[in-house]
Amino acid sequence: MAHSTTHHHESNTKRIWFVFALLSVVTIVEVILGIIKPDFLVDTTFLAMKLLNWIFIILTIYKAYYIAWAFMHLEGESKGLRRAVVWSSIFLISYLMFILLTEGDYIFDVYKNGQVAWDF
Amino acid sequence: MEATVIRTGTEGKTWGGGNEPLKASYGKMMMWFFIVSDALTFSGFLAAYGFSRFKFIDSWPIADEVFNHFPFLHGVDAPMYYVAFMTFILIFSSVTMVLAVDAGHHMKKGKVTLYMFLTIIGGAIFVGSQAWEWKNFIKGEYGAVTTNGGNILQFVDADGKRVAIADFVAELPVTRVANQRNNGIWFTENETVSEYTIEEVKAGFAANENILVRTKIFDENGEKTILSREESISKLNAEAIGVVQGANLTENEYGPPLFADFFFFITGFHGFHVLSGVIINIIIFFNVILGTYERRGSYEMVEKVGLYWHFVDLVWVFVFTFFYLV
């Protein structure tokens, strides 16, 4: 294939092991936080969500970034492909999450405060 | 033959043919198409999970209490450790996969073979671990009582520690057996009968003074509400209708039935992806051994299954967060 002859591939085993170490450290941090659940992070909320959950979600996206960029080699693809993959997903998923979570919260309110008996 | 050769004057230009859009080969591009659409499917599942969780935000189970098993540590409360182990296995098999791709770029057949093999082993361990996790989830640990309103009541001792139904249930001389086909002419099937009847649980509860009922509603400290002895008795007598051990698609001992449904669907769908990933990896592994890609002059096929394999890992990172951490 033209692909293998036109590109010269540097060996990037070093980077692979670096990313592995990074993902492992982040996972260990997540697990430790999940087990001890520091009171400060649980009691403080930001935008109606516990600080601890914000940390988990941000670390997850951080890990996802490294998996996609280093392992799936998005960093070596053309800008067009990268943007098509990343932005399509981000926009659609954000929209879906926003709609469904807002609606779920609304239904919770109706169950809790409205005239609907569901625990009988 | 001359007549069939068409010259458009665009050879070598953008629309002259022979180009790779976005500088990616056809196969790789289609793999990306598939991955993006599959990512949206998983997002749909996870967003639906989020919806149900927000809907039952004051009564959702605490993951640490549900997934707290570890092999050979029976009865020890070990939250998170096993799923952390599974996550490591999957991340590590992603590393061996990307090392195989890297070795493929340098046409090193031996190294590709070795790393592909390690990737397959990692995937198999992960699927096996998931099966074990499912087994624990389905079997259950403590058991609970179901109520008229579709809620569950769990039991704790005076210190707030969980008590299994089997530990305090009274032996009553009632024997109820599940109906079988040979009991009736028109009879086809019957629900399985739970191990203990609700009367046995009520009698056992009345006889054990130190046991209390725990509802699934969170109190203001973010812990499940424990009722007083009097409240427990009246709640149990007024509302309890059945006993549930473990989980299936219609009821579970952990909390809202939707929790078990989403657990089965999301981890099941992901596990199915891992399983098909392992099978595809095995096929590619044998192709590597047979020298197919050596003859083709390119290991791009390894790269393509690699993309799929990393995607499975990527999805697990999110499932791990939303099912076990948040």
UniProtKB/TrEMBL annotation, chain A:
Q: What is its main location?
A: membrane
Membrane topology classification: Multi-pass membrane protein
List keywords of the entry alphabetically.
Cell membrane, Membrane, Transmembrane, Transmembrane helix
Entry's localization field: Cell membrane
Q: Which InterPro entries match?
A: Cyt_c_oxidase_su4_prok
- The lineage's top-level taxon is Bacteria
Q: Which Pfam families match?
A: COX4_pro
State the name under which the record lists this protein: Cytochrome c oxidase subunit IV
TrEMBL record, chain B:
Q: Recite the lineage of the species.
A: Bacteria, Pseudomonadati, Bacteroidota, Flavobacteriia, Flavobacteriales
Q: Which organism is it from?
A: Gillisia mitskevichiae
PANTHER family named among the record's database cross-references: CYTOCHROME BO(3) UBIQUINOL OXIDASE SUBUNIT 3, CYTOCHROME C OXIDASE SUBUNIT III
State one Pfam family annotation.
Answer: COX3
GO molecular function terms here? cytochrome-c oxidase activity
Q: What is this protein called?
A: Cytochrome c oxidase subunit 3
Topology of the protein relative to the lipid bilayer: Multi-pass membrane protein
Question: TM segments?
Answer: 31-51, 80-100, 112-132, 262-293, 305-325
The record, for SUPFAM superfamilies, names: Cytochrome c oxidase subunit III-like
Query: What's the chief localization of this chain?
Result: membrane
> Which keywords belong to this entry?
Cell membrane, Membrane, Transmembrane, Transmembrane helix
Question: Which cellular component, as a GO term, is one annotated location?
Answer: plasma membrane
Q: Which GO terms describe its biological process?
A: aerobic electron transport chain
Q: Highest taxon of the source?
A: Bacteria
